Amino acid sequence: MARFPNRSSAPNRWYTITVLFLILRNIVMVRPEDGPHENTLGLIADDDIFAPLNDGCLRFAGGSKGASSFKVALFADLHFGENAWSDWGPQQDLNSVKVMSTILDIESPDFVVYLGDVITANNLPIHNASFYWDQAISPTRDRNIPWASLFGNHDDAPFEWPIDWFSSSGIPQILCSSAHDFGGDKCSFKGTTRLELMRDERRRNSLSYTGFGPRNLWPSVSNYVLTIVSPKSDSKSPVMLMYFLDSGGGSYPEVISTIQSEWFRNKSQKMNPDSSIPEIVFWHIPSQAYKNAAKKAAPRRAQCVGSMFEERVAAQEAEMGMMKLLKERPSVKAIFVGHNHGLDWCCPYEKMWLCYARHTGYGGYGNWARGARILEIIDEPFSLKSWIRMENGTLHSEVVLST
């Protein structure tokens, strides 16, 4: 703790008032008052104590008459905090905010999914990378839209020392004081763990629907389920289940483990034993099945929609049972991933669809135009549609994923 020399009573009073203000502000941030969404949105919580904080149900907007829609925006690979010590890095973060803001204002989604690589932790020499995580979710929070997040391979990656720091120019001066509110008032190169990042998101944001997942799945953290229910005010009938899985990377291998697959099997059997409720699944790094789908699509590309051949699929290191389980469940309609910045395709696979999101952030590799995948769920009759909304406002790659 910093020590201050003796001063007159008046400055001391101002110092005391300032400290009290900061304490009160943090209290408000921990438990902000419910916004309009939070009176109607929630989720059916997991059994684990680290399940999503909001209790209740994610409900369609609208009344009880006619079909209602629920729209979800997917923001993938934002990579906030990249090269934060340069002029280039902060400008890329501002550009990413503009992309998200444009898409949110055009689409007005009911919910947002942050699909991994929210930050580039291997570029962050601050004590707590939650400072940049908070910047990334700010466009959604500022519009009072609830969201959920999961982890990618860069979110808790260890700091990588830039080689040019060791040239004659030397290590640049790094100012970390701007991250004070997040415990980042000093520089650190130890990294911020998945648990720390998720703890800070949940502690500071009542609009967050992110869950930790059961302890026995750690080091995999972002494993949980959200339930969307009927728009009818007198009904809690599920319309769709959304599963979120941590595909690893960063601090541990890029894989969905056998125990995660077992967790999904038990959870899906409990929540949807007869597979009568449609299900969709989110994780960051594509499975090996995405490679197979891309190879099969090459000679008959008409079955797929979106950018197919801008780069090769960078898949998980191994398959450990998850795709087998998903193929056996007729209720699974689609899987959504990020990771490959140049791909935004959807392809049929078995009885489901394999889909990429769209590279949203200006951080990370590649110069492809930025955008986001949009999902639209209709309750009666049920349908799941999707399209890509670009940063310039244009729309492409519309596809019906289920009816």
TrEMBL record:
<feature type="signal peptide">
    <location>
        <begin position="1"/>
        <end position="32"/>
    </location>
</feature>
<dbReference type="GO" id="GO:0005737">
    <property type="term" value="C:cytoplasm"/>
</dbReference>
<dbReference type="InterPro" id="IPR004843">
    <property type="entry name" value="Calcineurin-like_PHP"/>
</dbReference>
<keyword id="KW-0732">Signal</keyword>
<feature type="domain" description="Calcineurin-like phosphoesterase">
    <location>
        <begin position="70"/>
        <end position="341"/>
    </location>
</feature>
<dbReference type="Pfam" id="PF00149">
    <property type="entry name" value="Metallophos"/>
</dbReference>
<dbReference type="InterPro" id="IPR011230">
    <property type="entry name" value="PAP14/16/28/29"/>
</dbReference>
<protein>
    <recommendedName>
        <fullName>Calcineurin-like phosphoesterase domain-containing protein</fullName>
    </recommendedName>
</protein>
<dbReference type="GO" id="GO:0016788">
    <property type="term" value="F:hydrolase activity, acting on ester bonds"/>
</dbReference>
<dbReference type="InterPro" id="IPR029052">
    <property type="entry name" value="Metallo-depent_PP-like"/>
</dbReference>
